[in-house]
Write a structure and sequence with these properties.
19 helices, mainly alpha, 564 residues
Length: 564
């Protein structure tokens, strides 16, 4: 683990002067940075600049005015969707429930931090030729490729959230800063082209000490994702197949272990953020865990997410004979238990119960086990939904849940397989390779859900892939893009969202639709469910975020997104 943390340590001590931005909105793209007269003069400075580019991929929720709440944005962005609710961050709540405006703090920081990262990459690319004769040809080409990869990755995130954005590919002067937005398609084409170019000079494998840096597989995977998100099906399928044909990646047998320290070196992980104690850590476990293990239940799964998981026979809970409303968590897709801490299970040695009459629970951390007070039944800020997240919570961190160095996955092989399947389905090219890709994900040894049999229609396979992505990638930052591009956000982000019944269980299963979304209108005791919030969704507006108000005010060429 020490070697794979080295990049985190180096990034953590990179001089802030490498940043190509000051906290000044006139330099928002930004316009200035380290002196181009002096940088770069040698290989060490070039590497420092590159690590500064990587550093900017890892901005956290602390940037949103919440002090020590350091949760990577790639995780907390799912709290703006139909699977997760954030208890403390009003800006995230507004994004999730449709109360967004152009002054939203999350929106502003996301935009600003992305363009800071783009500027760092542009500065490096503008000045790298100064050391061309001082470094090897291989290092020169790879460094350029990594900077182009990081820049394109920032643009991938930007167009996913905002649509078309200003496309900046060099350091700007004040006079050049008044830029209109390029179309989403133009930026998507740029990303795909950049990932293509970068993949040619990126290594198949980075050295162990460079874990967290871009590889050929990472570039092809983001190319595939960008193409998928923009309905360029043939390009998505081709790029995903190229990753598959590298022969480097495979699914991790133990799904739960993938999000623990034991899984950090898995062949499934294509790209991840790196952390190191005393240098750069995150607080994800604290804000996921219940209170007895040291958490605060800040980000919690909705009841509808829990109910969306199938039973072990591959049928939804409204159709499966295996589903028992009195024992709702038995006979379910194992990924439910790997992803969510459900009542009756254990976490960090404590029994987890959220029924409000369960005033005592078992503490298995002592021998023999003892009964102790259950804060999840009595605390005012216990989980509001009755559930907490299990992903990224490892007992290795139990003595210091505020300083985890557990890597955060950005891209993994399961996504590539489902990207390939979805793209081929949308192309109408349904063959054995589509079923194989889906079934590899469904039938990894620790999951072992029934194989999807051949003969399905395009609509049936589309439904299967959409549900698989929901079950597989919760709290990995992909859900918002999925519900937007499938045009189901207007369905799943509308109306009340629920937690569990505080002193009971659902009398019967809700109806589950083709996208894995429950409908509780036919549940006889629906009125007993806890309403967490009521969402609204303006389909003319909310498929895009607004540009931050300050950006539109200072850049007169930037036209605001519709209805903001």
């Amino acid at each position: 683990m020490l070697y794979k943390k080295i990049i985190a340590g180096i990034v953590g001590v990179v001089l802030l002067s490498v940043s190509a931005c000051k906290e000044n909105y006139l330099e928002k793209y930004p316009l200035s940075g380290p002196s181009s007269v002096s940088f770069y003069s040698n290989q060490d400075e070039l590497m420092m600049g590159l690590y500064g580019c990587y550093q900017q991929l890892n901005y956290q929720q602390m940037n949103y005015g919440l002090g020590n709440l350091r949760v990577p944005w790639h995780i907390f962005i799912d709290a703006t969707t139909d699977i997760c609710w954030d208890r403390t961050n009003g800006a995230l709540q507004d994004l999730g429930k449709g109360s967004i405006d152009a002054n939203n703090g999350v929106v502003k920081v996301k935009w600003t931090e992305a363009y800071k990262g783009i500027a760092r990459c542009n500065f490096l690319l503008d000045n790298i030729d100064k050391v061309k004769d001082k470094v090897s040809v291989a290092l020169y080409n790879q460094t350029k490729a990594e900077a182009r990869f990081i820049r394109a990755l920032h643009y991938h995130y930007l167009i996913t959230l905002f649509g078309g954005v200003p496309l900046v590919t060099k350091s700007l002067t004040t006079e050049e800063a008044q830029l209109p937005k390029s179309t989403k398609e133009q930026v998507a084409d740029f990303i795909i082209s950049e990932m293509d170019a970068a993949s040619k000079d990126l290594p198949l494998n980075q050295a162990v000490m460079n874990d967290g840096r871009a590889t050929k597989g990472a570039a092809l995977a983001i190319k595939a994702r960008t193409a998928l998100y923009n309905e360029k099906w043939a390009i998505a399928a081709e790029a995903a197949k190229a990753v598959m044909d590298l022969g480097k990646y495979s699914l991790h047998a133990n799904f739960g272990e993938l999000f623990k320290y034991a899984g950090e070196s898995s062949k499934e992980i294509i790209l991840s953020l790196q952390y190191m104690k005393n240098v750069n850590t995150h607080t994800t476990p604290r804000y996921f865990l219940p209170r007895l293990p040291g958490g605060v239940c800040d980000k919690v799964p909705y009841q509808s997410f829990v109910d969306s998981y199938e039973c072990t026979d591959g049928l939804s809970i409204d159709k499966s004979p295996l589903y028992d409303p009195k024992k709702p968590f038995q006979n379910r897709d194992p990924r439910l238990g790997f992803t969510v801490v459900v009542p009756g299970s254990t976490i960090f040695g404590y029994q987890f119960e959220t029924h409000k009459d369960s005033l005592k629970i078992w503490n298995y951390n002592v021998n023999p086990a003892v009964r102790i007070d259950n804060t999840e039944a009595t605390h005012a800020f216990a989980t509001f939904t009755g559930y907490v997240w299990r992903k990224y919570c490892d007992e290795v961190d139990r003595t210091d849940v505020q300083n985890s160095e557990l890597s955060i996955i950005l891209v993994r092989y399961a996504e590539v397989l489902l990207t390939y399947a979805e793209a081929k389905i949308e192309l109408g090219e349904i063959d054995a390779s589509v079923y194989d890709a889906i079934n590899l994900v469904r039938r990894r040894p620790s999951v072992n859900m029934p194989a999807i049999t051949t003969g399905k229609t395009k609509e049936e396979l589309r439904s299967i892939v959409r549900k698989e992505r929901k079950y597989e990638f919760a709290m990995e930052g992909l859900r918002l893009a999925d519900i937007r591009r499938w045009k189901i956000a207007e369905q799943v982000l509308t109306g009340p969202v629920y937690g569990r019944i505080p002193k009971g269980l659902l009398a019967n299963a809700p109806v589950i639709d083709a996208n894995g979304t429950p409908d509780y209108s036919g549940v006889s005791n629906k009125g007993d469910m806890r309403v967490i919030e009521t969402k609204i969704f303006n389909k003319k507006r909310d498929y895009l975020w607004p540009f931050p108000a300050i950006e539109v005010q200072t850049n007169k060429s930037l036209v605001q997104n519709p209805e903001y």
